[in-house]
Specification:
The protein has helices at residues 7-23, 347-352; strands at 33-39, 44-49, 54-60, 67-71, 76-81, 86-91, 96-102, 107-112, 118-123, 128-133, 142-144, 151-154, 160-165, 170-175, 181-185, 194-195, 201-205, 211-216, 222-227, 234-237, 244-247, 253-258, 263-269, 277-279, 289-294, 299-304, 309-315, 320-325, 331-336, 341-346, 360-365, 370-377. It is mainly beta and 378 residues long. The protein starts with 6 loop residues before the first helix and ends with a strand.
């Protein structure tokens, strides 16, 4: 824009600028904290400063990281390299690896205990659940499983694990105190079963059917089987775990399930081939949103959870595969596997936007094949 030559016009522009600066709401600064991004092909964890929206360090590992656990109280992030069976402790303050916890074999999955004092690991070949106390980062207890497992979940309310024996079409409730396992036949191959918030039921997604099986974790019996419009490849709870969202092969839609009513409430179109999801919580500045990745179209579809309508679509990087929400509900961070970057979406701006495209704030190169991320405030 050229500088106006007329002095009176300059004075008018200056006055209008002062007036408008008092009326406009200044944009919020970046989030004070870090996003830690696991780069599977890069053998590294990228530390992204979310106040500057830039990678400040790559923390290199000896193998490919695939899973991250955030422990805000300890100011640590725990990264799993499954092929080597090692949990790496990364300091948020130092942005460096502090310790390594070998588990004695290849690992499929890890979960943080409800009290935050240990990590539980599911071994790939050893038919075991292994407890890794965070004080020592050395294996403490090993619970034998009846057969090879494919995934597991931990209850937030009781000392229980739900272990999925996928190809066998079975699930087992594990008492983490006694080590006893009670098996339930689900009828056909399943993916990783997840607990309801109260731990009294769990939901098992089938891998060869458009079906969810709801199990009672106390008796072990099948409560109900819920038919779906899609194969349940991806599951995601909302912030209070009162609604469960399902996407997968067979439908360009999200199924909305009420776990306490054990019913499918509605199926909502959500872009092309919807996949991984994340839900933002309700806040003063924004309603609850569901961010749904559309890897084939390089987009994220955003649904208003309350009215179950698509409110925006964001064009992001190539092959979006993971979404995480910052703790203050300010940003949705989208990892794009093929382009190796992270898209940042302003949640408040998306809520107030009258036009259909979402408020994509910036794109940050993070590394080779980013697969998951966690965020910690400073």
């Amino acid at each position: 824009m050229s500088v106006p030559r007329n002095p009176s016009r300059r004075r008018c522009l200056a006055a209008s600028t002062v007036f408008l600066s008092g009326c406009w709401k200044k944009p919020k600064p970046g989030f004070s904290g870090y996003a830690f991004v696991a780069n599977e092909e890069g053998y590294a964890i990228a530390a992204v400063d979310l106040s500057a929206f830039a990678v400040v360090r790559h923390i290199h590992l000896e193998a490919a990281p695939t899973q991250l656990i955030s422990h805000s109280a300890r100011q640590m992030v725990y990264a799993l390299t499954p092929a080597t069976g090692v949990v790496h402790e990364i300091s948020r303050a130092k942005l460096a690896r502090e310790r390594a916890g070998p588990l004695g074999g290849a690992v499929l999955d890890i979960r943080l205990s409800s009290g935050g004092e240990a990590i539980w690991a599911l071994m790939r070949d050893a038919k075991q659940l292994v407890e890794l106390p965070l004080d020592t980062l050395r294996p403490a207890r090993r619970i034998a499983l009846p057969q090879l497992a494919s995934g597991f979940d931990l209850s937030l309310e009781q000392p229980r694990a739900m272990v999925s024996f996928g190809p066998a079409g079975a699930a087992g409730v594990v008492d983490l105190q006694s080590g006893k396992v009670r098996m339930t036949d689900c009828g056909s191959p399943i993916g990783t079963a997840i607990f309801r918030k109260d731990g009294l039921q769990c939901i098992a997604p089938h891998r060869d059917k458009k079906l969810l099986t709801v199990l009672d974790t106390v008796s072990g019996r099948v409560v109900v089987r819920l038919p779906l419009a899609m194969r349940p490849d991806h599951l995601c709870y909302n912030s209070n775990k009162g609604q469960l969202f399902v996407t997968g092969q067979g439908s360009d839609a999200v199924a909305i399930v009420f776990p306490y009513r054990t019913e499918v409430a509605e199926t909502v179109l959500s872009g092309s081939s919807p996949a991984a999801m994340a839900a933002s919580p309700l806040s003063l500045d924004s309603p609850e949103f569901l961010f749904v990745t559309n890897p084939r179209s390089n987009q994220v579809t955003i649904l208003d959870i309350e009215n179950r309508k698509v409110v925006a679509v964001a064009q992001v990087g190539a092959e979006p595969s993971h979404v995480t929400i910052t703790p203050n509900n300010q940003y949705a961070l989208v990892l794009n596997q093929r382009s190796g970057d992270m898209a940042v979406i302003r949640i408040e701006a998306t809520a107030k936007r009258s036009r259909f495209p979402a408020a994509l704030f910036t794109m940050i190169p993070v590394g080779s094949k980013p697969v998951t991320a966690v965020v910690q405030a400073v």
